[in-house]
Amino acid sequence: MNGTPHTMIEITGLTKAFGSYTAIDALSLKIAKGEFFALLGASGSGKTTLLRLVGGFEFPEAGQIVIDGQDVTGLRPNQRPTNTVFQSYALFPHLTLAENVGYGLLNLRLPRTELAARVEDALARVRLSGFGGRFPHMVSGGQRQRVALARALICKPKVLLLDEPLGALDKRLREEMHLELREIQRAAGITFVLVTHDQEEAMSLADRIAIMARGRLLQVDTPRGLYEAPKSREVAEFISNVNLLDGTCLGHVGREVRISVAGIGDIRLGSDAAAMTAGAKVTLAIRPEKLRFVTAADAGENRLTGTLRAVTYAGDRNHAIVDVPGLARPVLVTTPNRDRLLSEPQTPGAAVTVTWDSTAAALLTD
Amino acid sequence: MTSRSLTTYAIVYLAFIYAPILLLPVFSFNDNLFVTFPLKGFTTAWYGEMAANAPMGKALRSSLLIVGPVALISTGLGLMAALALGRSPIRFKATILGLLMVPLVVPTLVLGVSLLTLLRGVLGVQLSLATVAAGHILLCLPYSVVILLARLDGFDRSLEEASLDLGQSAFATFRRITLPLMMPAIVASLLLCSVVSFDEFLLAFFLSGADATLPLYIWGSLRFPAKLPSTLALGTCLLLFSVCVVVLAEWIRRKGTPGSAAATGL
Ligand SMILES: Nc1ncnc2c1ncn2[C@@H]1O[C@H](COP(=O)(O)OP(=O)(O)OP(=O)(O)O)[C@@H](O)[C@H]1O
Ligand SMILES: [Mg+2]
After folding, report:
1. Which of residues 90-149 of A touch B (CB under 8 A)?
2. What is d(CA B236, CA B106) in angstroms, rounded to the nearest whole number?
3. CATH number for position B221
4. Which ligand is nearest to the CA of A215?
5. Cis (ω within 30 of 0) for the bond into B38?
6. What pLDDT score was predicted for residue B259?
7. Residue B264 pLDDT
8. Cα-trace Rg, chain A
9. Residue at B83 is within a domain
10. Higher pLDDT, B127 or A307
């Protein structure tokens, strides 16, 4: 989180139903001033609906939305201090780019020259000087995207809502736009709420991310928090690959905790261990890159042995799949490609030993 | 092989449609009272006769008098219906749309008789050009709704949402965004309603009073062979006029919406 801890958006108990289907289910959320906030979730999880509720395009059955201290729950979009960048960009096809960008200023009834100057300034900020006279169908997708951004920003909203704004762009353009978005957000100091189902996009852009599923928030955390300390199985599995181990707590050993995992044996957990009592059922999440192959002699306390099923080469990394007798699902191991001439066990069918540090695993609490 | 036969088919098809129409100007310049081959000689006499034919001129004026109001009122009502069906959260949309389409499927004969019964028998209204116009509006409304609704469904609703989002009221959004984007369909609806009203016969037959519309006049004059050539001359003028209108409409449609290929034409 950057900026002051002052709250910009406060959502309480928000519920929205379409017919008998509850799209947003008693959802509460606080977003800070100047924060870059991302809503991440599978298709149909309610991201767009939540964004449209904040923008005033849908109205909730229950709950409240407060923006910068003002209750906006019943207000129309033109009465809210928010602006939206639509997924389809929604540029007006019968207006030039300049007219599109200046559209939000029409109500101010500015003198012609001042309006033109402000529009030109806004176009320049998204590197589109001199394009004002063109129509939307005469520019590329990336340029349209930037016009949509300029059009929304010219109104100086307190909150900018973006619904998968980069969805239609190719990968290179997306990455360029990531940098640009981040820069614009910092410079303008505006609170951004970005909807995406691209996990990398959310991770690289947002200060905090909310993981949505079935109209609820599963976890709201920093990118690092979500990745390193997922609270639930669902979040752990949604964010990249993960190995989940079910076990039983055996008791404390100094600052660590001993856990018995069927098929692996006893392992140690270094962090998050404080509140555990002996006999409790627990689930651990370990990311594949925190595991490494070792020779049987070098393995530490935390170890498992299995058979190598397959290795996939991915340039900078190798992804290995290891079958462990007694575990329902194979263990994924990602290793960095440090040596051009390989160093890891490569032959499928080989017996391998895998080890990890006792602080590598996260304890799921939900 | 297939493309050869398709080409032949297309040529025959076009000839079938346009040959009769092209006979109209040919015979309108033919120096013979009877419409038969061989052609005799060139004359513009029928055009002179047409211009001098006072009842025909009156009928033409009657038709033109109702075309404007019919087109404007049906398109206006059609626009309201389309907006309600396409943009508001009202219920029973399918039923309402179905009811609006009824005049398309009810035989015009039945419509004519029942309107006559209603206007004369029940309401006791004097038959006039106004009652003809009312009947024509009823007939044109479904065409108008279909054309306008197709256009409304054809463009992204988020355009209107974006306008609201950028501070415009619902009415300003309609004026600045919805209406300009609908314009090609509105023009198309105006033209189609004009055409439907202009050559409609059955309702006009039932609902007209003392003033005949052009189709009624032409039907009446068919009994007198001497009047046929001047009717052909009139037909030629109307043909020329409708070609101009279609060209103009197409030009407006292309000019109207840069970039949106989904414009609905006639
Ligand atoms: N206008 C509507 N009428 C009925 N159901 C709707 C409507 N809008 C959304 N829904 C339903 O609400 C649920 C959430 O939809 P929403 O568009 O918010 O999902 P999303 O998370 O944005 O998905 P995606 O990633 O595919 O865009 C979906 O099951 C959808 O079918
Ligand atoms: Mg969505």
Report:
1. 90, 92-94, 103-104, 106-107, 135-138
2. 32
3. 1.10.3720.10
4. 1
5. yes
6. 44
7. 33
8. 25
9. yes
10. A307
Percent pLDDT > 70 in chain A is 96
Domain containing B174 equals 59-257
Q: How confident is the model at residue A273 (pLDDT cuts 50, 70, 90)?
A: low
Report yes or no for ipTM above 0.85. no
Q: Is residue B106 a part of any domain in this protein?
A: yes
Which residues does B contribute to its contact with A (CB < 8 Å)?
155-156, 158-159, 161-169, 177, 180-181, 256-260
Ligand 1, atom nearest to A164 Cα: 27
Protein residue whose Cα sits closest to atom 4 of ligand 1? A18
pTM for the model stands at 0.81
What's the rounded mean pLDDT across residues A186-195? 91
Q: Which domains does chain A have, with CATH numbers?
A: 7-237 (3.40.50.300), 241-364 (2.40.50.140)
pLDDT at B261: 40
Handedness of CA A23, A27, A33, A39 (dihedral sign): negative
Contact B164 A77 (CB under 8 A): yes
The reply to whether ligand 1 has any atom less than 6 angstroms from the CB of A47 is: yes
Put simply, the answer to whether A107 touches B167 (Cβ < 8 Å) is yes
* Residues of chain B scoring pLDDT < 70: 1, 253-266
For residue B191, CA distances in Å to B62, B66, B96, B145, B186 come to 18, 13, 25, 14, 9
Instruction: Say whether pLDDT at A3 is over 50.
Output: no
Tell me whether residue B183 is in a domain.
yes
Measured CA to CA, the distance from residue A334 to residue A227 in angstroms comes to: 15
Q: Who contacts A12 (Cβ-Cβ below 8 Å, separation ≥6)?
A: A28, A63, A64, A66
Give the count of alpha carbons within 13 A of B11, CB side only: 6
Q: What is the mean pLDDT of residues A301-311?
A: 88
Measured from the CB, is residue A52 less than 6 Å from ligand 1? Answer: no
At A68 the pLDDT is: 92
